[in-house]
Every structure is written in structure tokens, then in C-alpha cells.
Design a protein that fits this description.
This protein is mainly beta. About 0% of the residues lie in helices and about 60% in strands. The protein contains no helices and eleven strands. Strand 5 and strand 6 form a beta hairpin.
């Protein structure tokens, strides 16, 4: 069973930066597209960014130009570099990955989340 483990969250002042990591372990199968979502208190979980196995990335309008998604396929790890952070970026950040299995449908796996708090 593939597991995703996020790290890198914390408390940062407005305008600061953080780098989140999402490491996939125990994967006997290829990992397809990966993505970051976030959920602020009292709000629905929202998509932040995604990246394909071929490194094509997409961003939500709210983070485009400030956040950068990347992945290291050799390490089965995805990153989210977050710059110019704003208080409205405060949320629990989750990573997800699509696991590709030969002759069977792919399935999605989620991490446990990491808290990002932007406050002075």
C-alpha cells in the first residue's frame, strides 16, 4: 500500500516562504499525476496545483506566480515552493498521487496533511 507523507509546514510571517514535501513510500507501481490541495478552517478543500509525470504543471489563480510545484521522480517526491505567503494561504495542505497499476484501474492516495499558518 502506497503511503504519502507530507512535511515542511509551519508558522511563517506574511511575505515569507515555505517548502512542502510529499514523499511516496512503498510504491511498487508507477506514480502518475500528483497534486496539492488545501483546506482552511470552515472551508471546502480546494485544489492548489498539480503536476504530471512529464512535469507539466497547473496552478489555481490564487497561487499562480507565487507557488511552484515540482517533483523528483527518482525519489518519488513532490514539492511545493511557496513564496510571498499571505494570511489567506493558511490551511492544512494535502498531497495526492495517482497510482498506476498494470491491467487495473489507477487509484488515488492521500497524505495526512501538514499545517501552514501565515501570521504576524
Amino acid at each position: 500500500q502506497v503511503q504519502l507523507v507530507e512535511s515542511g509546514g509551519g508558522l511563517v510571517q506574511p511575505g515569507g516562504s515555505l517548502r512542502l514535501s510529499c514523499a511516496a513510500s512503498r510504491s511498487s507501481f508507477a506514480i502518475g499525476a500528483m497534486a496539492w490541495y488545501r483546506q482552511a478552517p470552515g472551508k471546502e478543500r480546494e485544489w492548489v496545483a498539480d503536476i504530471t509525470g512529464g512535469d507539466k504543471s497547473n496552478y489555481a489563480d490564487s497561487v499562480r506566480g507565487r507557488f511552484t510545484i515540482s517533483r523528483d521522480n527518482a525519489k518519488n517526491t513532490m514539492y511545493l515552493q511557496m513564496n510571498s505567503l499571505k494570511p489567506e494561504d493558511t490551511a492544512v495542505y494535502y498531497c495526492t498521487a495517482k497510482i498506476l497499476r498494470p491491467l487495473r484501474p489507477p487509484y488515488d492516495v492521500w497524505g495526512q496533511g501538514t499545517q501552514v499558518t501565515v501570521s504576524s
